[in-house]
Amino acid sequence: MAMSVEEVEAAIIEKAKKAPKPQLYIKDFYKCAPDMKPRQIKKIANKLVEKGELMFWSSGSTTMYARPDRIKDEEGAEGIN
Amino acid sequence: MAKHDTPMLDELEKGPWPSFVTDMKRQAETHPECWDILGQLELSYEDKITHWKHGGIVGVFGYGGGIVGRYSDVPDRFPGVEHFHTIRVNQPAGLYYSTENLRALMDLWDKYGSGMTNMHGSTGDMILLGTRTENLEPLFWDLTHDLGQDLGGSGSNLRTPSCCLGESRCEWACYDTQDICYALTMHYQDEIHRPAFPYKFKFKFSGCANDCVAAIARSDFAVIGTWKDDIQIDQAAVKEYVAGNYPANGGAHKDGDWGPFNLKKEVIDLCPTQCMWMEGDELKIDNSECNRCMHCINVMPRALRPGKEKGATICIGAKAPILDGAQFATMIIPFIEVSKDNEYENIIDVIERIWDWWMEVGKNRERVGETMQRVGLPTFLSVMEVEPIPQHVKEPRSNPYVFWKEEEVPGGFERDIVEFRKRHAA
Ligand code: HEM
Ligand code: HEM
Ligand code: SF4
Ligand code: SF4
Asked: Burial level of B83, CB count in 10 A (0-12/13-18/19+)?
């Protein structure tokens, strides 16, 4: 059965909370909704950034996702409001 | 922020060429933080290691791109560059600015940043170098509200599309590069402003094979103008070139001592596919062999022109990462129509077919060209639903096996792997 958007959001947040490293690649979220197209998952993850559940974090040339409260380092914390 | 001693950097001011050190010193007169760039760079030269830190910030509110965060790791010594973020501003298609717009941009940047710029970055954007986090939102507000301009892409986003100046000035343009560049920039706003992919993805549009935006070397998705039918020849003009009445290359090389124009040496012998010859005083071209390289047209623009059935070739997968080295894009679609009448629907189809596949199969930080290399061209062509043609073949085969799919063999074949493994364990 296809997952609802809310279920996917919850799975993504769960993953971002529990992953060993705070920063995740978009691909790390694909497994949260195996039946969904990557571009849809990307849209959901980006919506979560808008809602403040996730933040973008840049390594310099790649963009990653993180839970804001898991990013301690000064550059990260002030990065996105 | 005071001046630092920079004996090693000062060496770079010697000699006849322009020097960024001189430029920065001049800039420091009005923006003293520029002394700290020079001071920190001198320290890097001494320590032989960078003192910049990467990471963190990526955008203004709602955006996941356009700002590239940079911080000093020695802010106590160089407070002026404690934060030194780079801002990408989406350039206008074909790089047309009014002086009024440029002045307004520079005033904005003098107000909120170091005043230093880099025009244009390899993505194509205007690069505004060096500002602090707290200036980002006010700058973005003024940029979008007062100047009607926007940030470009960075990070794992669709990067700001760029194009040659195309039909606006160039008679060789085989499609309207500026129009498609603008149309796709608008169509893919979400992908430009928010991360979408395993890594960066770039579109570039050149109107012909002269490829003035170097699409084939710099973009994951290069759209390069070409034509299907025959090169248009004006034999009377050919005679004028031979007689020396028209300057070769539009006069571009007239200051050099090249001697009189020699059609055989400068055109026929340099044709990469050797498909041109003279019959009496008529120039002939075997158009079925011509690969539309533009060389002969560049040399004799008044005698030769691109054909009339115009469109583009799509080449995919250029990249220049440090580790695996650079590669040119590979020709995938030899000819596609490029027309604003269908709002570029056919091009969008191709783009999204690549994205759907690459987002699934591409590894983190893998450019689509690297994914293609990893799976091999035959697999990529079947993903793209493109029939292989001889022009896809880069070199003679190095693998002796031939693999057939069932539907490719007349009559097919029955092959039940489970049954087979019962008898022959792997
Ligand atoms: C000896 C000193 C330097 C050398 C040789 C150098 C060389 C280069 C080269 C070759 C590029 C790529 C150009 C392109 O294809 O667009 C580049 C880009 C760039 N440089 Fe420099 N550079 C130097 C100093 C600096 C300094 C001091 C800064 C900042 C204060 C800087 C900031 C940048 C930026 C931000 C880009 C990327 C532009 C983009 O986003 O595409 N560079 N540099
Ligand atoms: C030793 C010094 C530095 C090294 C080794 C370095 C290395 C790199 C590398 C490997 C990339 C990624 C290239 C890629 O996209 O594959 C990059 C991107 C970049 N760097 Fe640096 N960098 C240095 C200094 C700087 C400085 C001083 C600045 C600006 C103050 C800067 C600004 C940028 C920008 C704007 C990008 C592009 C990011 C993007 O494409 O989104 N870098 N640099
Ligand atoms: S790429 Fe071709 S069409 Fe575009 S400006 Fe250059 S020569 Fe003209
Ligand atoms: S365009 Fe290039 S390949 Fe074609 S005839 Fe001219 S020189 Fe030869």
From this structure: buried
